[in-house]
């Protein structure tokens, strides 16, 4: 999607003849691809651009002079002087015969793909038959195959093998593209068939519902249940996925103002691929619980920290209001608190689920309207420690190399991350690389699905990251594997690092981290000597009191080995939400202005005061957890937080030690919540403002790869709900700010261009017009003809002296350790189907159907010791709270640990977690606290996610 690199080599041309005319192909092209480029139509069914050509359907055969048999053009490369006939009588007769024979086996009632015309009922097969004027002879139709019954066992997809032509596109989609290894081609001859696992029903198989097979299928044998029937829609709208940070480009298919299906687009991060959330998690936008009118808390109704109601029934607590009344109360009360108690009395939580433009305006509102830097968002809860270490070490909080660069790596170290669940499409690039011979090392207390593809698995004991990483650094130094030239030219403080790791030999650390010394040394040697070693990490690294130290060790490891600043190497913290990177870039953090410029830097402070034409606070603000502490501060504290504006965040679910966080929210004098649903946080609000879901807005987001990408509005917000960008500007007006952003979509382009000026050091060349034109542009990008820099730090780091700063780290134990009363370790995280606090994904019908209940995972040994079976109810208790939920057996979870996803309010994992902070990143220790596990208990009821009244597309019953 980015501009082509002019320095890239031009592929070699091959001259040959096609239908008697001279043509030229390029190295790597097939005859079919050349023909398509020259406008010569050749039918094809098993061929799909981007997939390995298979040549099994034989619909694309051509005649080649001098050859006895016809050749499949999809997998035949042209050679110089070759004479090819795609339109000869022999070739066309064969093409038509294949189409007729395949069509003869189709059911009379098809799965319409292109239109309502009967000739178009079997997708690409019918389309090619029409274009080639092919009809099935009655005699051939009379001997058609016995049709198999449909398989409707999967919540998302219908399997209609009566329409299957066994083209194997679904097999390649599943096994070679997504590498999920579920779909196979079984049996022989007349009995051959597409099967799922060991001929299971699709819903009973290990299918992860990525839908790649649905997108690949040419006939409707595999279809989304939400879009069976005519494939005609009212409009197709190109956008970007609203879930994780991979940033997959997609297309919404809209009919009767409902998104009926989603297709992957050929974006640079996904190349058509999607996961179950991106493909089937879209209908939350149509959920009947959408907020459609402003709400105001009824007079005399108190805020009860323990009372979160049914999101479908808020009328006992709130009343509907006009926008004018709600905005006047929301903004007026915030203004009154500011003017009465001072600028430190207000705080704002912005959202990483919105656009860059919303994030930029939100932080600008807090800084210029509230008068302080008390603004934060969910990066504080996921990668704040990673960013702190990266800014300190390499001078930039963004990734050095993009995920797709794993194809150039010799070794991929995945540490503290479960990419197949949290970043599924990114995981496909890792699995693809492993199949080509790249060595994956999984380092994690939990052995997750990516471990199936790992060369070595380092299942270290929870909380021992620094011990393991320092042992690897020690090995590199001890065995003379350092890149001495790199360290001399491009690193500082190496001697201090070297001295610090002297006591961290693999032999000394093996008893601590639980990994044999020889394995540590083996992996360290391979990391140091491979052609490129790349580290990808997640919140298992960052969410500790020593999270910054964990990341410092990762920086040191790539530096001592010279594995950064080149293809297939470097540092990549995988971002959890669709715009965590962009929201952070835009300044939605308390100590940094846009582009990570410190608020207490005099030059930066002066520049922004001039740019925004208003005085600014020159002291860093409070972070998420600190703000909650300040909400409970005594009235005598001049920094007591009395009022908050929360946009699209849900701290009543996402903060640690939820009882404390909910008490803080309930104690505020004034809380304004802007969201699309009645979230757990909204129950503590004084004013609730109905906002726009991602498909209802236009704006940019920045993915984990530093790609700025365009999202376009596909729908209008329901009822009286308004675009978030409009609401922020309305609050700003009531805070006395003279903003005036002009243009369509609430002035989004004008907001972006202002943000571009504030971040000109990295996105000067990324204009709004360019993003509209190219869809995706990688930064740094400093001029309009700059293609962007997918790999950075090639010649210098972004630090003041251009060198990476190596920072020694020592073992710091978790804030809370297991003991006899609380003998287990709690690990929290996400699961594939649900995301963040579940407010969106649990209202998506397919996602909720696949994972409807809260579960905890433990290994089989621990279950036996406790007398438990999978499916039993357990109660997990910490010093802060307890939850009851169903237990699931997972032998990848280590002995003495329990894993709980944090998306379920009825078993909120963060009721248990510890609010202890990393001193540098100010991130809570979500990944480690002491708990007790006992059999039995009563799970809390699931309230409010019923789908009664849901407006959906057609579903096959």
From TrEMBL:
Domain 4Fe-4S Mo/W bis-MGD-type: 234-289
Keywords: 4Fe-4S, Iron, Iron-sulfur, Metal-binding, Oxidoreductase, Repeat
CDD domains listed in its UniProt record: fer2, MopB_Formate-Dh-H
One Gene Ontology molecular-function label: formate dehydrogenase (NAD+) activity
Residue span(s) of domain 4Fe-4S ferredoxin-type: 155-185, 198-227
Domain 2Fe-2S ferredoxin-type, chain residue ranges per copy: 12-90
Cofactor: [2Fe-2S] cluster
Entry EC no(s): 1.17.1.9
Superkingdom assignment: Bacteria
The family this protein is said to belong to: In the C-terminal section; belongs to the prokaryotic molybdopterin-containing oxidoreductase family.
Name by which UniProt lists this protein: Formate dehydrogenase subunit alpha
UniProt source species: Variovorax dokdonensis
